[in-house]
Recover the amino acids of this structure.
């Protein structure tokens, strides 16, 4: 009998209940403790797998108390933001119409590639609450697209043609808060490309709100090194054509 392909009954049952087993012994133990603690306060804990609990733990450097606080807030937020389990496209029709977020292809690690186009976001023509729902719709769509076993995605933030009319500090901070507090450890890497000098004014305001784990994943790419830098992590066949690859951009609602 091949032990690699055959699991003990208890292990198989645990994986069926809580998702793929976590190999690291310390993480597995802390996930179990955190699950038990959170389940006493919110029965919805039973609905999530161990990998989600581990992501909240990792976002708080495996501190069970801090991770549990963040996770329980997320469960409350989810009931409020996603009462039906999803965001209807009719609720975010304006934001979708601008085709400001596209998703196509995977990087060399199998992570979905998202392209956010900064100059297609115009806060003066939008609604802050709709934009928050659009951010959640986008993150839910990305997570649903992930291959089995993959937990992260990569984003190319394209600021070509970005100017003050596109600047939305409140919207950026709301999106950042949603990503960090409700979808922790989902972002694998963020490439910021074509960033104009004027953007740095906004960046200085946003930067202090970015947590240490997220800061490590952000890379500003010089224009002259754009395609070579992206090709280090993304095959040409999977790279969007506007960056020298083969794939056309696909608005996220069409994926």
């Amino acid at each position: 009998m091949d032990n690699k392909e055959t699991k003990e009954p208890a292990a198989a049952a645990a994986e069926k209940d809580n998702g793929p087993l976590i190999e690291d012994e310390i993480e597995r133990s802390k996930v179990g403790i955190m699950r038990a603690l959170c389940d006493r306060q919110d029965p919805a804990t039973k609905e999530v797998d161990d990998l989600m609990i581990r992501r909240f733990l990792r976002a708080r450097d495996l501190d069970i108390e801090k991770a549990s606080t963040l996770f329980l807030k997320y469960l409350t937020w989810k009931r409020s933001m996603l009462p039906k389990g999803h965001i209807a496209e009719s609720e975010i029709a304006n934001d979708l119409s601008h085709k400001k977020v596209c998703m196509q292809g995977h990087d060399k690690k199998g992570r979905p590639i998202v392209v956010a186009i900064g100059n297609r976001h115009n806060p003066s023509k939008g609604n802050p609450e709709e934009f928050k729902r659009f951010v959640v719709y986008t993150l839910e769509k990305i997570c649903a697209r992930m291959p089995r076993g993959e937990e992260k995605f990569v984003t190319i933030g394209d600021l070509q043609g970005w100017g003050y009319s596109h600047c939305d500090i409140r919207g950026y901070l709301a999106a950042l808060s949603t990503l960090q507090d409700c979808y922790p450890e989902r972002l694998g890497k963020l490439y910021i490309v074509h960033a104009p000098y004027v953007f740095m004014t906004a960046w200085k305001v946003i930067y202090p709100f970015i947590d240490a784990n997220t800061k490590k994943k952000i890379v500003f790419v010089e224009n002259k090194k754009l395609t070579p830098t992206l090709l280090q992590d993304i095959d040409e066949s999977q790279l969007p054509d506007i960056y020298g690859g083969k794939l056309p951009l696909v608005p996220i609602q069409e994926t």
